[in-house]
Design goal:
Oligomer: single chain
CATH topology: L-fuculose-1-phosphate Aldolase
Largest sheet: 7 strands, mixed
Bound molecules: manganese (II) ion
CATH superfamily: Class II aldolase/adducin N-terminal domain
Number of strands: 7
CATH architecture: 3-Layer(aba) Sandwich
Radius of gyration: 18 Å
Helix content: 25-40%
Shape: globular
CATH class: Alpha Beta
Number of helices: 7
Structural class: alpha+beta
Strand order of the largest sheet: 3-2-1-4-7-6-5
């Protein structure tokens, strides 16, 4: 299998995992940088992530437009991906989602911060991007390159940026890590909100975030996690044939 075919296959699995783990609903999208040409990236046509197949994966250029054009309907927020790949050479994958547990932290005056060691990969300081500050009254969709560049600026060198009244975007050095960040962002948000209802919350210290991220924040730090999620959504590798 070519590198490109392998990356396309992995991106289908990522779509299905994020849908199955309820990071995505009918909306949301995940992309991966082209394994050979870093100016391009792979992203599905406008299909709900739980139904994405290999034939739906399109190639996109730095401008956020399909390479060679397409007759398929496209995600209107595909510029998010283009802007982050342009700004962050280290990023290999981008997830944009509207995960319910995360949404309150996009509109309340409480920062989303790691409370769990498995969630240290989300980063200690998660910025909140308020589209209104720069663009005034909009429909809150990131449908223009200027919107996306502003969002990528807010992300900075981090892995997650929250988007006011909308959702979040996550970026990482591998597809596996971007998926893991997106999933544990939601789990952390749920745990943090539940803990806040009980009393004063003890967050991870900056040193704990750094130490846990050093262990868990590398690509495939925990390969069994991806394999388990792939199996849960029905895309496990077939068992090896016994001799
Ligand atoms: Mn969106």
């Amino acid at each position: 299998m070519s590198e490109l075919a392998a990356r396309r296959r992995e991106l289908v699995v990522a779509n299905r995992i994020l849908a199955h783990e309820n990071v995505f609903d009918s909306y949301g999208h995940v992309s991966a940088r082209h394994p050979v040409d870093p100016r391009q990236f792979l992203l599905a046509a406008s299909v709900s992530p739980g139904q994405v197949g290999e034939a739906d994966i399109l190639l996109y250029g730095e401008d956020g437009e399909a390479v060679g054009g397409t007759t398929r309907a496209q995600y209107s927020e595909r510029f998010i991906h283009a802007a982050i790949y342009a700004q962050r050479p280290d990023v290999q994958a981008v997830v944009h989602a509207h995960t319910p547990a995360v949404l309150p932290f996009t509109v309340a005056p409480v920062p989303l911060r790691p409370v769990l060691h498995v969630a240290a990969i989300i980063g200690e300081h998660i910025p909140l991007w308020d589209m209104h500050a720069e663009f005034g009254d909009t429909d809150l969709l990131v449908t223009a390159p200027a919107h996306a560049a502003s969002l990528a600026n807010a992300l900075g060198n981090g892995r997650v940026v929250l988007m006011r009244g909308h959702g979040f975007t996550a970026a990482a050095g591998s597809l596996e890590l971007a998926v893991r960040v997106a999933i544990y962002l939601g789990i952390n948000a749920q745990a943090q909100a539940a803990a806040m209802a009980l009393g004063e919350v003890r967050y991870l210290s900056p040193g704990e975030v750094a130490a846990a991220d050093a262990r868990m924040g590398s690509p495939r730090a925990t390969g069994r996690v991806w394999d388990n999620w792939a199996q849960r959504c029905g895309l496990a590798k077939p068992l090896p044939v016994q001799a």
